[in-house]
Design goal:
about 70% helix, globular, mainly alpha, about 375 residues, two-stranded parallel ribbon, disordered C terminus
Length: about 375
């Protein structure tokens, strides 16, 4: 029976939760990214109508960050430096890490809660913004989501519960997928290939240099509670003793309901980085549908959809992500050791996407800035 333990582990509650939640976060973050583009397009359309300008709208959302080729190449280097800083100086800087993480998690979870708050307050609010001086102007839904987020972070600081930490990590995932963009398949390939090497090195080979698995050590190391540190300095020993250590929300943790003490862990990078690729292909699928619709409208002849048209790039990449995550899970159970998830996620998401783009004839366009529409210049011919 022990030879098939890896098969039983796939249906363990912790594994199933990891599969479902990670895929839902990617899908939801990708849709939030599309909705942000639609909102920006509607806002610019209203501005153009008010000023009497052309109705053609080019989406250029200033709130999002697009990764270029140079950033994609050097991001694994920056991630390695950050990992080493946390490995060597975590004890002396853990309060800074905890406070910065709490602030970022507060903003990210407020973004995650915003649609729910907008839906709840829609009947009794017109979306008018309230001024807070130099802090800016915010709607009632934004204030409600931020207040709930602050309350959740305070509960996490006071209890250190894994479920609250997971909620904050989910907010970070969705926010990063929604606000960070990959402009082309070239940048996506450079970024994911570099991060694959980064993940493999720090999981498999860091032990030979630093006598410890740097990635696992940093991911699983708890931080002292800022409340307990402050309580010690102001001489409140009872409060300092009761303050729990905090596991920072840089990962998702799901305990098993069947095996006590067993849990499944997945780093946020293993969700966000493939999620950026899936967000890119979802945007391209939408762009291609619009282009085909415009071509049909101009010619008046609808093109019959084929089987390859119905199978979108997003579907292909999402299935690949699931297969890669399952392969990583099987490997960790078979070898009884931590596995670099990107070693499996990147090939299973990127390679089928490249093959599918080649078969559909979209590889050249997707490789180089697929969303930049260039209008051909008109030339006058002398007769």
């Amino acid at each position: 029976m022990s030879d098939y333990d890896w098969a039983y582990s796939l249906v363990d509650s912790s594994r199933v939760s990891t599969f479902l939640i990670s895929m839902l976060l990617i899908v939801y973050g990708s849709f939030r990214s599309l909705n942000m583009d639609l909102d920006e397009k509607d806002r610019k359309s209203e501005e153009n109508e008010a000023t009497g300008q052309s109705a053609n709208v080019t989406i250029n959302n200033e709130n999002v960050h697009s990764i270029d080729t140079t950033q994609a190449m050097f991001l694994p280097v920056g991630a390695s430096i950050s990992l080493l800083v946390m490995f060597f100086f975590f004890d002396s800087m853990q309060m800074i890490f905890a406070i910065c993480t709490a602030v970022l998690a507060t903003v990210a979870f407020a973004f995650l809660l915003l649609p729910m708050c907008q839906y709840i307050l829609r009947p009794c609010s017109q979306g008018t913004k309230i001024s807070f001086g130099c802090c800016g102007r915010f709607t009632s839904a934004e204030l409600m989501s931020f207040s709930l987020s602050v309350l959740l972070v305070l509960m996490w600081v006071m209890t250190g519960h894994w479920l609250l930490m997971d909620a904050l990590a989910m907010g970070l995932c969705v926010t990063m997928i929604a606000f960070v963009r990959l402009p082309s398949l070239k940048v996506s390939t450079l970024l994911l290939s570099g991060l694959l090497i980064y993940d493999v090195f720090w999981v498999f080979f860091s032990t030979y240099i630093f006598n410890a698995n740097v990635m696992v050590k940093v991911a699983t190391r708890p931080a002292d509670n800022p409340v307990g540190i402050i309580a010690k300095r102001i001489n409140f020993p009872g409060l300092a003793k009761d303050a729990p250590q905090l596991s920072l929300p840089g990962k998702l943790i799901f305990p098993s309901m069947h095996n006590s003490g067993h849990f499944s862990m997945l780093g946020l990078g293993d969700i966000v980085m493939p999620g950026l690729l899936l967000c890119f292909v979802m945007r391209y699928d939408k762009y291609k549908r619009q282009s085909n619709l415009e071509a049909t409208t101009s010619t008046g002849i609808p093109l019959p959809p084929t089987l390859t048209d119905k199978l979108t790039y997003f579907h292909c990449s999402l299935v690949g992500y699931f297969v890669g995550l399952m392969t990583a899970t099987i490997s960790s159970e078979v070898y009884k050791a931590a596995q670099p998830a990107l070693l499996y996620l990147v090939p299973f998401t990127l390679l089928p996407l490249l093959l599918m783009a080649y078969l559909k004839g979209d590889l050249r366009r997707m490789w180089h800035e697929p969303f930049n529409v260039t209008t051909p210049k008109k030339t006058l011919l002398d007769v």
